[in-house]
Amino acid sequence: MKKILLASALLFVLAGCGKYEVYERNMHYVTSETLQAEKSAVTERYEKARAELTRAEATGNFEVIRPAEANFRDAQKQLKVIEDEERRRARGW
């Protein structure tokens, strides 16, 4: 049973169902105030991740750089989801 669940989870990930798909879907249902609060929190996380990446790159140590890059990319993707949701709401569909 575990192998079937693992295989189906892997299939979904490979098919493009990334970890931000659910986050993106949830952003459709939050209120404007909650969206702005989330944007503020994610923007702060993004700025911290960018500063951390800059410090990590200055060290030249790839064991420090790789996790910092991953953290930065995650924050960047979250911020993109929020910005896309703001554009969607601005269209008024």
Number of strands: 0
Helix/strand/pairing category: mainly alpha
Percentage beta strand: under 5%
| Helical proportion, percent range | over 70%
What does the oligomeric state look like here?
single chain
The count of domains is: 1
For the largest beta-sheet, the strand count, sense and barrel status come to: none
Shape: elongated
Give the number of helices.
4
Mean pLDDT: 83
Please write the string of helix (H) and strand (E) elements.
HHHH
- In the predicted model, the low-confidence regions spanning at least 5 consecutive residues are 1-16
How does this structure look, described?
- With 93 residues, the protein is mostly helical.
- The protein has one domain (18-91).
- It has helices at residues 2-14, 20-27, 32-59, 62-91.
- Helix 2 packs parallel to helix 4 (62-91) and helix 3 runs antiparallel to helix 4.
- It is elongated and about 45 Å long.
- 10% of the residues are buried.
